[in-house]
Design a protein that fits this description.
The chain has one domain. The chain has a two-stranded parallel sheet. The chain has two helices and two strands; from the N terminus they run αβαβ. About 45% of the residues lie in helices and about 15% in strands. It has about 80 residues and is of the alpha+beta class.
């Protein structure tokens, strides 16, 4: 996995997390101030392994870490119907 692929996958997880937060804002009450959020996808072993390295690194420096485990979002494929008027 390239650095660009890792960034894109994490951005996809972040976007899905933000959608969840907008629908469930009370979840933010469970996150301590100044915490490092790390997304660990349940269905992407390669990215999960890389992101868990971030967890270990942050813990070694004494930072509070919040691990967000979630499935990788799948793009929606819309159906487009054109009708003549």
């Amino acid at each position: 996995m390239t650095q660009d692929e890792m960034v894109q996958r994490n951005l996809d997880l972040h976007a899905e997390w933000m959608r969840y937060v907008f629908e469930n804002p009370d979840v933010l009450d469970r996150i301590p101030p100044q915490a490092v959020l790390v997304f660990v996808p349940e269905d992407d072993v390669e990215l999960a392994t890389e992101n868990l390295k971030t967890v270990d690194s942050a813990k070694r420096t004494g930072q509070t870490v919040v691990v967000i485990r979630m499935k990788t979002p799948r793009p929606q494929v819309p159906t487009i119907e054109v009708t003549a008027g």
